[in-house]
Amino acid sequence: MQAPLNFAVDNRLPEMLERLTQLLPPKRQEPATNPLDQLLYGVVSQGLSSSGATACYKRIRQRYPSFVSMRDADPEVLRTLLVGVPAAALKAAALPEILRLVEETSGVLSLDALRRLDTEMALRFLTKLPRVNDDIAISVLRFTGAERVVMQVDRDVARPMRRLGLSEPAAPLSALPRQLIERAPVSWRSSDFAELSRGLGTVAGRWCHQARPDCAHCPLASLCPTAERAPKPAKVLSFPFGARGSASSRQGAA
Fold it and tell me: Does the keyword 4Fe-4S apply (predicted)?
């Protein structure tokens, strides 16, 4: 007889999400992002800080305000807009090529067709594009308008995830989103995973440091199997003959 499927749901996750939600400031309502912009921005942002990537992509969009103009852009001209960017030449060549491949596949310069694909097929399509890795692909799916169970995990988010036991100890970074989704309640939606990811990122930055985690102040410490527990204060035993006893002894000796 076939063994029943066993999805090891981690019952700590709802409590973790509740604590993290209370910790986080309300998320501002942001204007809708075109998934194609998110895709190209993700390629540009590799190896850059968030502020640096945003400034760089704004320069590109000012020079090429339409996707058609960027599709037809000369990579050498694009490269001049990527000064100081890691792998600038490769990224400059990748941006027009990505747009050409998207248009060849769907017939238009749009990722709307991804809405008709399941998550696995959509990720497979995106990660075949030049310089698009799993993290970029997952971030793009969040903007496709379909309700997908996806979670973005970078190295900072991975640190508390591993310490909390939400993934296998030796699992590669690319496997962590799937492993966490498998442990989550079936009722969770993409918004729950997004909040969990945002909260774990905050925990990583404030308390779950790489070298010396501040477990004493971490809001998830009581749920963490690897948290350093504060030692209980040792019971102090008084010496039976204190100062007064010593004085009495001296008087007796006199």
Answer: yes
